[in-house]
Sequence to fold (335 residues):
Amino acid sequence: MNDPLRKWRAGVAALLVLLASRAARGDDAPAAPAAEAPAVTADEPLVPPSIISTARARYDAGVEALKGKRYGEAALHFEAAGSLHPHAASWYMAAVAWEEAFRPERAADALSRALGSPELDDLTRERATARLATLETSLATLSVTAPDGWHVQVDNDTEVPTPARLHTFGGTHALRIAPADRAAFLRPVTVRIGTVTQIALVDSDGIVEPPPPAPTVERIVVRTEAPPGALRRTVGVGVLGLGVASAIAAVTLGATALDARDAYRVSRTQEGYDHVRLLQGATNVAWVGAALLVAGGVALVLWPAPRAPQTPGAPASARLEVRASAGAVGLGGAF
Fold:
């Protein structure tokens, strides 16, 4: 075991002995090894008493958990106290607890924050600096700078304000970045053990540009108009079909009327006579209807379509005529 680690372990052991002895006497828990209570300066914003009281309660809960060797719980209490009312004592104690909980990366984070505060005495600062240097040889370090009010977090560790010095293990991790004025976003970072990765964030980071508007597609509707007279010719074909059907019916009725006439010549009854006359009348009507329908259908189909209106300025339709006579051929037309 190297000398800095021995000094660190000795400091931790002394702290635990001090906690145990004070607990036996019923004394108050210490703030931190050789750390003084924070003094309020003119430049430091005033902290509401309720927040100070809550921070102290979390700190005391951390001390109780540390005495009970619930190191992970103690570390979380100390970190909460440091977040509510920043002080080197809380972060130093969190580092002690994380070290005992075998979480070196969290201990290194807490030590970095403790060293960033002015409250540590020289001896404690020397030991913390040496221990942090030892821890960082087996960890990957992220040094993050960002605009004021931004916070960062590696994976599921504690969110801390920037500038921050974060620690983790080698590999790819998720760096959660929380700007002061917009939603947080994630950035993957790949780090190596024993190295310090510098990350400088700027205001434009994490701003998602709106997607470009979708191109406007002009819809072209093509309207196809039937040529002039198409509907009339269609109706004409239908009428012509009805005429053909009527003609077939007339032929059938005529054949039936002839059979009825032959039967009447044999029977010579009034009933037979009336039946023949009825069939003959129906046959005549069918033939007349067929003739009218066929004639109407042919007329509708063959009737010439009206000419389309001539567009002003458009050239007139060209026409070529060929005239032939005995011994001569003539050409003529309109253009």
User: Anything to note?
Assistant: The chain has three domains: 1-137, 139-206, 230-304. The first strand starts at residue 140 and ends at 145.
